[in-house]
Amino acid sequence: MARVLVVADEVVEQLWTDKVFQHADVDLVLAAGDLPFDYLEHLANALDKPLVFVPGNHDVDLSGYSNVRGLWTKSGVPVRWPGPTGAVNADERVVDVAGLRIAGLGGSIRYNKGPNQWTERQQARRARRVSRLAGWRRLRDGRGVDVLLTHSPPLGCGDEPDGPHKGFDCLRGLVSRLQPSFMLHGHIHPHGVVRPDRTLGTTRVVNVVPLKVLDIPGGHDER
Predict the structure, then answer these.
(1) Distance of alpha carbon 51 from alpha carbon 183, whole angstroms
(2) Which residues contact 128 (CB under 8 A, 6 or more apart)?
(3) Averaged confidence pLDDT in the chain
(4) Cα–Cα distance measured from residue 216 to residue 155, given in angstroms and rounded to the nearest whole number
(5) Which residue of 25, 90, 131, 209 has the fewest CB atoms within a 10 Å radius of its CB?
(6) What is the pLDDT of residue 69?
(7) Which residues, at least 6 apart from 162, have a Cβ–Cβ distance to it below 8 Å?
(8) Element (H, E) at 177
(9) Taking Cα atoms as reference points, which of 119, 126, 182, 165 lies closest to residue 9?
(10) Domain Calcineurin-like phosphoesterase: where (predicted)?
């Protein structure tokens, strides 16, 4: 069982203070997008815990960067990575951190020319890659995905009717294939209204804006 601090979209001002240490018992920080990177670095450094994130539609474009032995490059040229220092970008990846297997898929539905926005077709292609990666891992060690970390919610499962906040239909299929214990997403601001958890099959779908602390079982066996 891992205790996880999950954040997205809205900065919790108290976490800039000593109140951050109220969460000193967490094992991992997860971020579902659209937060200042210095805020994420602060959380990880103050708590001295690993940080895994996916980018939101208001984050900078982090695609095309590679890290080999600590050297960041883009198109073969050494560069400074603009993402949060020391963090793991799980976008379109499957990573094992703090005893959890986490599949990630960032971004929102495309509504203008900004970064980290995808058409349904584009996101479906990315989702298939994540599914393949998870399948290869499962064949190797028999473990499934514990957490699906996304910026946007699935279509019709906690999204909104306006264009920018419409969910992705392909995420419903990805949940069905991966069957994670939790799907954690941001993008949908509560605006003072309680956003209840939802379920897709056996998966608990949680809107984490601005902050949730969750106990998540690890070592998800193959089903």
Answers:
(1) 17
(2) none
(3) 94
(4) 24
(5) 25
(6) 78
(7) none
(8) helix 170-178
(9) 165
(10) 18-190
Strand-pairing partners, residue 100, are 97
Global confidence as pTM: 0.95
**pLDDT digit string, tens, across residues 152-180:** 999 999 999 998 999 999 999 999 999 99
Q: What are 55's two structure tokens? A: 């980018």
Torsion of Cα atoms, 36 then 130 then 98 then 216, to 10°: 90
3-state SS record for 109-142: ECCCCCCCEECHHHHHHHHHHHHHHHHHHHHHHC
Contacts of 103 (CB under 8 A, 6+ apart): 90, 93, 94, 130, 133, 134, 145, 147, 148, 149, 174, 178, 180
Q: Cis omega (within 30 of 0) on the bond before 217?
A: no
Q: Which amino acid is at 145?
A: V
Helix or strand holding residue 200 (H, E): strand 198-200
**pLDDT tens digits for range 118-144:** 999 999 999 999 999 999 999 999 999
